[in-house]
Amino acid sequence: MTDTSHDRLLIIDFGSQVTQLIARRLRELNVYCEIHPYQNVTDAFVKEFAPKAIIFSGGPDSVMREGSPRPPKAAYEAGVPILGICYGQQVMMHDLGGKVEAGEHATAEFGRAYVTPTESRPNFVTGWFMDGSGQEQVWMSHGDHVSEIAPGFEVLGTSPGAPFAMTADLERKFYAVQFHPEVHHTPNGATLYENFVREAGFSGDWTMGAYREEMIRKIREQVGDKQVICGLSGGVDSSVAAILLHEAIGDQLTCVFVDHGLLRLHEAEEVVTMFRDNYNLKLIHADETELFLGELEGQSDPETKRKIIGKLFIDVFQKHADTIEGAEFLAQGTLYPDVIESVSFSGGPSVTIKSHHNVGGLPEKMGLKLVEPLRELFKDEVRELGRELGLPQSFIGRHPFPGPGLAIRCPGEITREKLEILRKADAVYIDQIRKHGLYDDIWQAFVAILPVRTVGVMGDGRTYDFACALRAVTSVDGMTADYYPFEHSFLGETATRIINEVKGINRVTYDITSKPPGTIEWE
Predict the structure, then answer these.
(1) Fewer beta carbons within 10 angstroms: which end of the chain, N or C?
(2) Is 57 in contact with 13 (CB distance < 8 Å)?
């Protein structure tokens, strides 16, 4: 449980696929919240956490099934406002004396629906309707339904399939909705959450300025006068973590930048200049290009390439970290979604945290303790913290870049020739995107060089060069993605520039595959 001086909201997770969205909506309102699986939330937990309000998430189970998820009794007795969402509404009604029935054709709802307010006393829910009487579009996803509300509750809104779409016990400030206000398809859902937290008395004191001061204090308390090692890639997470640590402990921090020779054009120089020269960080630039490319020579299987890069990264990082005398801590850019994902909802062993956040088990291998200054933040909050720390927008707004680098944008065997061609083509593509003012509209964009050569004609001569694929996607978190709808004139202009300016490419394609079924990267 996080030690924080902020007012806290507890989200009890009953297994909804969109529980993280609830937390993100609240954080956007400057409200500190934590997600905890229902199995971990006991009476004692609630009392220790001391929430200012509680939210019950949705979930896939049925309250009528014996052994289905339940909140602890202490949640209802804490004397704080509660908001139940979908399954959260059903479990609230069931626990407090109402009735829930299995879904029937007439009452099950999936997809877009419209909620109409009933005549009721003014409160945060009825005030949600934009004109006080009109309908609100919402997103429903329920089979079971409330058939009788609990004593003390009244109906605040109805939909065609949910006569108790919005209910409330206004005296206890218990609210329950059958729909999902956190999803995009409930357009005014953010306003509903805002009304709820204001009703609960949250002042909105969760700001990156406050977080910066609080985390600097915690880092100093944890580290004392010991040395800290930080793996720096130049990406947003590691960059923000490094600058925050440097502000907290200064020369006690040493960053290790492993250069595997698979970075974009001029990227290594930019990272070194940024952190060593501009911020005066102690930085080890581990240029191991020859080692990595030598081991990758002749390899074409994607998994083999990844494993080679992962193993070498650990070996190189440890080799250079071992030269730092007195190091007792390893800093990582673990984010809150990684913390959430590491706790299995079923209560079993935690899933493996993504390798780029776990540095291959290095903390245990090297006998180091972890410092994770970003573990309470979502990605958008990390960017905001970076702005608070004064990092330039060129770094804060960077598109994600994979740990294996250009290796997974070079299907087939990796050669120095192909990497140089790829770097130049990618630089032209990103330059085009920036010139057209599209960079911030796109979640990730890059070029992949294809393992085929094609015939072309340039001037009066025949060419036999590589083909490349442009990739650009829109996304929120990378879990799903859609291709960016460039205008054909942009694609034509970009293809012309790449072919004219990059020797070795004579054909340009655009990848319009969504995720799923495809992945964002090519390998």
Answers:
(1) N
(2) yes
